[in-house]
Design a protein that fits this description.
- It is built from 10 helices and 12 strands.
- The chain is of the alpha/beta class and 307 residues long.
- It folds into 2 domains: 3-145 and 226-305, 3-Layer(aba) Sandwich (Rossmann fold); 149-222, Alpha-Beta Plaits.
- The strands form 2 sheets. Strands 5-4-3-2-1-10-11-12 form an 8-stranded mixed beta sheet, with helices on both faces.
- α5 (149-164) crosses α6.
- The longest helix has 18 residues, at 190-207.
- Bound molecules: magnesium ion.
- Magnesium ion binds at residues 68, 70-72, 248-250.
- Its cofactor is Mg(2+).
- It is an enzyme of class 3 (hydrolase).
């Protein structure tokens, strides 16, 4: 384990102790890649995969390559336990680390689950930031806080709240230990099923101090003070990179896309990529570059690792 990783852990503990951090969560998305703040087209910003590769390749040896998992490396599934990275993912991530890049998966799911489903422990040196950066896995070691009392209270009370609505019988709760996710993807009409529970679930979450975030067919109750922007911020601070790439597909990735814009404004070459297959228009609009699906995302990473 490197000193850098220990340093990252130390900062993580500090941020956990101080949570909520006060940093805006889901803050405003900056100008879309390719368009400067003055409204003029910035030709230095690539807006297609080939141009992105040309711009990023010279930086690969000292780059930070960060990516979401579900919907980005792994096609979205009705049951999240069925999520698997597309063929070639491990090879692409490993090749990037061999070129010298730091590779990190930044996910809303718990880190151990994503390591298991993705077989990510095969990638040397990979960092997995789980539950929006609330926990960190690296080299077989997981740094994660104890289960907060608020989560215990939410576990106790959420079933009764759903029973009172009553929720669609296909609605179920995923317990990520540091957050709970109400899933409606198995319902005949996921949109209607989510709409029916949104108000009481949001009220309960807010009463217990959670942030309530919608996602693709889900409503997630998260501990405050963590999002993917913060996770990337810590990774950048831990090992200052020469360039940063982030790939994502959902609403939970918007803070990461905004962080990419902030890095660019600070002079760090940085780009974001959205996977269109998840059909989240906000994510597609906010990213610099779009790719159609997880296979194309992994193809981009594979190409990036090549000379
Ligand atoms: Mg995703």
């Amino acid at each position: 384990m490197s000193d850098g990783y220990l340093d990252l852990n130390w900062r993580f503990r500090e941020s956990w102790t101080d949570m909520p951090t006060g940093r805006p969560v889901g803050s405003t998305i900056g100008s879309r890649g390719g368009i400067g703040e003055d409204g003029r087209v910035n030709t230095a910003l690539p807006d297609d995969p080939a141009a992105l590769l040309a711009a990023l390749r010279p930086h690969v040896a000292h780059a930070l390559v960060t990516t979401d998992f579900d919907g980005t490396l792994a096609p979205l599934q009705v049951d999240p336990e069925d999520s698997r990275a597309v063929p070639g993912t491990i090879e692409a991530l490993t090749a990037l680390t061999r070129r010298g890049a730091t590779v990190a998966v930044v996910t809303g799911r718990d880190a151990r689950t994503v390591v298991r489903l993705g077989g990510l422990d095969a990638v040397p040196g990979i960092v997995v930031a789980g539950v929006y950066g609330a926990e960190t896995w690296c080299a077989g070691e997981l740094l994660t806080p104890d289960t907060p009392a608020a989560v215990e209270a939410l576990r106790d009370r959420l079933p009764a709240t759903l029973a009172d609505v009553p929720a669609d019988p296909a609605v179920w709760v995923e317990d990520k230990r540091l957050s709970l996710v109400v899933h409606a993807r198995k319902a005949d009409d996921p949109v209607a099923a989510l709409a029916a529970i949104r108000e009481p679930v949001t009220a309960l979450g807010e009463e217990l101090g959670f942030e309530v975030h919608p996602g693709s067919g889900v409503l997630e109750l998260r501990l405050p003070g963590f999002d993917k922007a913060g996770a990337i911020e810590r990774l950048v601070a831990d090992r200052p990179p020469s360039a940063v790439l982030y790939l994502g597909d959902d609403l939970g990735d918007l803070p990461a896309f905004a962080e990419i814009v902030r890095l660019r404004e600070r002079g760090v070459p940085a780009w974001s990529v959205a996977v269109e297959a998840s059909a989240v228009p906000e994510a597609v609009a906010a990213a610099d570059v779009r790719v159609p699906d997880a296979d194309a995302a992994v193809a981009l990473l594979t190409a990036l690792a090549q000379d």
